[in-house]
Sequence to fold (223 residues):
Amino acid sequence: MRILLIEDEKALAEALTGALRKQGIVIDHTMLLADAIELSRQYVYDAILLDRRLPDGDGLGFIPKLRLAGIDTPIIVLTARNEPKERVEGLDAGADDYLGKPFLIDELMARLRAVLRRPASLAEPEITVGRVTVDPLHFNVTVNSSPVDIPRRELMVLAALAKRSGKTVLRSTLEAAVYNYEDEIQSNALDTHISRLRKRLLEAGAGVAIHSIRGVGYLLKEE
Fold:
């Protein structure tokens, strides 16, 4: 899952980023609406978390621009402006939900799950390949229904491969599923994740294999 966070409060942005990354979510963060518009054109997001009071304007002005561009990504507005009239303004502007500050991370996660369950969202169902099942929404993996402990980034690689099982997945696609746009990616980082993931899947008897497609990417298929 990849989320765009548009928030100019540094402490809150850091807290949200840390909490969401623990859930296996890739977070792209910006404090400017101008940057958010460009990011939303470059990447496909599962959800957008949007503040209202931003250095270059009211966050609500971002929503119609996004919708006019044909992007229907679910948007949750996060703001201290939480009077009934302001909530109505946010929802009428096209937001899918409106959460007043301060809020609990658990409540935000519940609201994210709610918008991702809606038919128009990009939430994905469980994916089964061989004897392994990946649940991208709840961020867990099982083999023959038994939980398997896989580190966050390796699990994100596995989810991206499983979603396209039987097809070659480009290195750039896998990197986009694991890293945000600000991360400094070492040249062998992805290969290291793949190597460790192969070992874990083999030890768990997952019934799948990850094949290297030289110079292109990787392919996951049943053994």
Q: What stands out?
A: The two ends are 27 Å apart (CA to CA). The longest strand covers residues 208-213.
